[in-house]
Amino acid sequence: NAGVTQTPKFQVLKTGQSMTLQCAQDMNHNSMYWYRQDPGMGLRLIYYSASEGTTDKGEVPNGYNVSRLNKREFSLRLESAAPSQTSVYFCASTAGQGANNEQFFGPGTRLTVL
Amino acid sequence: GESVGLHLPTLSVQEGDNSIINCAYSNSASDYFIWYKQESGKGPQFIIDIRSNMDKRQGQRVTVLLNKTVKHLSLQIAATQPGDSAVYFCAENKLKAAGNKLTFGGGTRVLVKP
Fold first, then answer.
1. pLDDT tens per residue across span B37-96
2. DSSP readout, B1-57?
3. Under 8 Å CB-to-CB from B89, ≥6 apart: which residues?
């Protein structure tokens, strides 16, 4: 099992450019999450998908959109990147309600917006 | 290199000593708690969890203590090793809440001195 994989690992964008961060998990998990992590802060939830076909806003959703493409894949899109979105982005997944809620994390995408 | 944790509280520990990392959680309704370890350049990694019907749980070299009265969680690492140098996060959750969302604390950096 690869666990949770993310692409790309690094990305540099100019202000106003768009991009999509990809995430996939091979653990047959129901729930998937996108977080951002800024220096000196913990992880903040951007969006999550409790199950295939559903998505909901987290703590900091502005400037982002998500797509739960299928049970395995959950993508995060920046339509018009801003310097404030410079951060490290982590995808995570968990088995779902009723089970222990341990979330498994991917290795992260380091995004710089100039 | 990883820029996460520049402004985090830091615990310096001598190799071989025991470490204690503290966390105050916010939601008295939370009933599931997790400790994560994050090494430089990597995603958070599960260490140990505890449910609210317990006040202590032990793993390999780690012990988590839960005091629900004062909403306090601690992680004890026995015989700290250089490989324990990382940022440690606590997270809380309400098991039956929709979305299985975790709320993360701000993190503590542990530096192990040889």
1. 999 889 999 999 999 999 999 999 999 999 999 999 999 999 999 999 999 999 998 766
2. ---TTTTS-EEEEETTS-EEEEEE---TT--EEEEEEE-TTS--EEEEEEETT-SEE
3. A42, A43, B35, B36, B38, B44, B104, B105, B106, B107
Question: Which residues of chain B make contact with A43, given a CB cutoff of 8 A?
Answer: 44, 89, 104
Between the CA of residue B87 and those of A37, A55, A64, B75, B95, what are the distances in Å?
13, 30, 27, 12, 25
* Residues of chain A contacting B98 with CB distance shorter than 8 Å: 50, 97
Taking chain A, what is the end-to-end CA distance rounded to the nearest angstrom?
36
pLDDT confidence tier of residue A99, bands split at 50, 70 and 90: low
Contact yes or no for B83/B43 (Cβ under 8 A): no
